[in-house]
Amino acid sequence: MEKIDGNKLRGHLDAMVLSVLDQRDAHGFEIMQQIEKQGSGALHMKEGTLYPALYRLEEAGLVKAQWEDDTSSRRGPRRRIYHITVKGKKELNRQRVTWRQFVDVVGNIVEAPK
Amino acid sequence: MEKIDGNKLRGHLDAMVLSVLDQRDAHGFEIMQQIEKQGSGALHMKEGTLYPALYRLEEAGLVKAQWEDDTSSRRGPRRRIYHITVKGKKELNRQRVTWRQFVDVVGNIVEAPK
DNA sequence: CAAGGTATTTAGTCTGGCATAATACCTCCA
DNA sequence: TGGAGGTATTATGCCAGACTAAATACCTTG
């Protein structure tokens, strides 16, 4: 499947991240993989895109992050586990409404018959 | 109805303009009005957005423009009438496929149940 | 001739997704 | 013992394109 142009994702990424975190807590790398996976191969989320988005969401109080207790003998560096807040859930609900409206309105124009 | 954030429109505007022109030839101002109208009031297309987009489309050979013969006694300045080209129609078809894919893929993530 | 709706052009700003690279941690294996 | 490779985060700077804003111009009406 063809990759979706990044420009088209502008403004929709926050909703995607919140939705993934609404399913379960996750660290950055995991969110990236989850989005790629659920995106049927049409999305290629990169670090430079995801992490700044997470910082924005944290700044806005929509998610909280905490460093994982690194007692385990997992390989790799410590991870920041992200968790959606109550405020974040409310925002996600709003974003979902907005998403449906967007699809409706833009779809109505793009798909307009002659 | 709440206005859709301009960021969300990035990358989708060309398809909207082409689709409007696929319905009938129109001048810039008319396209703006048409999009606002078909957008159920949720879109507020402004000149600074539309005209540069039209120049890009013309540059790319997707639309052709010609100055209206101003024989009539209409009020206002001369208008540039835009017309979709064969290349533009092909592009519109591609964009429609892309649009459906976008809605599918992003919707699948944004609307994902817990 | 000023006011107001129509129509286009242009200049400049800003958001946010992208590419790239640096850093670091851990395991495995030569 | 060190380098290859997968995991994970941080930081820098680029750039497309939608936005705001204002200038210009045309025609009608009061």
What does this structure look like?
The structure is a homodimer of 114-residue chains. Chain A has 114 residues and is mainly alpha-helical. Chain A has a single domain, classed as Winged helix-like DNA-binding domain superfamily/Winged helix DNA-binding domain (Arc Repressor Mutant, subunit A, Orthogonal Bundle), CATH 1.10.10.10. Helix content of chain A is 56%, strand content 11%. Chain A is built from five helices and three strands, in the order ααβααββα. Chain A has helices at residues 6-9, 13-23, 28-38, 47-59, 86-110; strands at 26-27, 63-67, 80-84. Chain A has a three-stranded antiparallel β-sheet with strand order 1-3-2. The two termini of chain A are 28 Å apart. In chain A, 30% of the residues are buried. The model of chain A has no long low-confidence stretch (mean pLDDT 90). The interface between A and B is large, with 39 and 39 residues. Chain A binds a DNA duplex (30 and 30 nucleotides) through residues 6-7, 9-11, 13, 27-29, 46-49, 51-53, 56, 70, 73-80.
Q: Which key terms come to mind for this protein?
A:
114 residues, mainly alpha, three-stranded antiparallel sheet, homodimer, Arc Repressor Mutant, subunit A, DNA-binding
User: How many helices of chain A in DSSP terms?
Assistant: 5
Give the name of the CATH architecture of chain A: Orthogonal Bundle
Radius of gyration of chain A: 16 Å
Structural class of chain A: mainly alpha
What's the domain count of chain A? Answer: 1
Largest sheet of chain A: 3 strands, antiparallel
In the CATH scheme, the class of chain A would be: Mainly Alpha
- The strand count of chain A comes to 3
Mean pLDDT of chain A: 90
CATH-assigned fold name of chain A: Arc Repressor Mutant, subunit A
